[in-house]
Amino acid sequence: MLKVGLTGSIAVGKSFVCEVFRELGVFVLDADQTAREVVEPNTKGLKAIVENFGAEVLQPNGELDRIKLGATIFADEAKRQLLNSIVHPLVIEKQNNWLRAKEAENPDGIFIIDAALMIESGGYRRFDKIIVVWCDSATQLQRLVSRNKLNEQQALKRINAQMPQEEKKRYADFLIDTTQGFESARRQTVEVFEQLKLL
Q1: Closest CA relative to residue 28, chosen from 97, 95, 98, 113
Q2: In which domain, by residue range, is 96 found?
Q3: What is the tens place of the pLDDT at every residue in 145-175?
């Protein structure tokens, strides 16, 4: 079993790279999806968020209002750290359960967990290899503005709230640069896959 962590900053193309890995037969778990699951209604994650941030972060139907919570945490570093301290342990527990179940099914498989804050949280230490997906900062800004319908200032605030890409790259065993678009990213992903198969 090869456990691989895949990370990268906001709007650099992690989802596309993960999709290519899935096409190649790699088992991929998306930490964003896991993070959504651990704060669904009636979970201990959502209960802890409401206790710490108040019921105003809920939608009328009882689900988490991500836009409202996002606006709060991107404006306040301490609140962002508080949210991470609630969500990260729950996400890691769910990831570990997934890895155990997948290993039982396929002991020789390659398993990738995709998580934006893997390095910041220290979670990267659990993996045999780390892949960092990145792109140049102008491309990242442009992608985030168009994807999230933000103005440049809002987008920069989100980018600057994360660990700088150059710093993340220092943790990488493999780098995938998505600056040149889909085909280039696909080619690099296939090359990394071929190397992972040899490990």
Answers
A1: 113
A2: 2-197
A3: 999 999 999 999 989 989 999 999 999 999 9
Q: What is the number of structural domains in the chain?
A: 1
Q: Which two tokens stand for residue 193?
A: 């896959």
Mean pLDDT calculated for residue range 3-15: 96
Q: What is the CATH number of the domain that holds 188?
A: 3.40.50.300
Mean pLDDT of 106-111: 94
Radius of gyration of the chain (CA): 17
User: CA 57 → CA 48, 82, 87, 155, distances in Å?
Assistant: 12, 14, 15, 22
Q: Among candidates 139, 133, 102, 105, which has minimal Cα distance to 28?
A: 102
Report the distance separating Cα 104 and Cα 24, nearest Å: 20
Exposed, middle or buried: residue 57 (CB in 10 Å: 0-12, 13-18, 19+)? buried
